[in-house]
Amino acid sequence: MAMDEIDFYIHGDDMQFVEIELDPEEAAIGEAGSMMYMEDGIQMDTIFGDGSARHSGLLGSLLGAGKRLITGESLFTTVFVNKSQGKKKVAFAAPYTGKIIAFDLQKYGGTMICQKDAFLCAAKGVTLGVAFQKRLGAGFFGGEGFIMEKLEGDGLAFAHSGGTVLERQLRPGEMLRVDTGCVVAFTQDVDFDIQFVGGIKTALFGGEGLFFAVLRGPGTVWLQSLPFARLASRIFAAAPVMKGGGGRGGEEGGLLGTLFGGDK
Q1: Which domains does the chain have, with CATH numbers?
Q2: Fewer CB atoms near the end CB (10 Å): N or C, the chain?
Q3: Is the sign of the CA dihedral 184, 47, 39, 21 positive or negative?
Q4: E strand or H helix that includes residue 15
């Protein structure tokens, strides 16, 4: 099954959304809750899995949905089909500040490995699968864990990332050490492993964590400057300390109490 050949345009700078133009009977798939708007004439349907040919039928749909559940994504995927006689647009927005990356899977050998929550949308026919880390070290100590997302097909797929994105071409044998949370995606020929930072003092007091992600070429990698976990930890650290045993947002304390005059 050939992928639908969709046209697209990415809008914005730090809070981006991608606008996809569909010809009659063309379709796109999106992560649940990612749709921003759609024009009249586009029909929306929710299905198990990703709706690709290899996941057709009841068993295939259950298999596809199960893979998505393993990677931490929703069991369901939303399909947007243009049922009108002319071109129509549907848009998908990133869930937090950062960049949207467009992958032409055909250009990268038909496969892309991504962090678990990176997928945003794609042309219908792109398969969303599971990529297991072959090394136990990468599985247990990598910021992305033992399971990552695999995008397969010959069409366009879109992933979102935090902060600014760096695309880096690695030559054969070239190595890059990266914070484990900063890895967004890499091509299937890149060798991915986890390495201890070395030195007890550096590991405990360096502030960079205990492990690096080690990427070896050849291949292409995409890195993000602001992993969502790092952003969330800074927000949590900056939140006011709870008072009087009340929850956050309670009458006597918490962030909402501060915002609305609860703290005197």
Answers
A1: 7-235 (3.60.160.10)
A2: C
A3: positive
A4: none
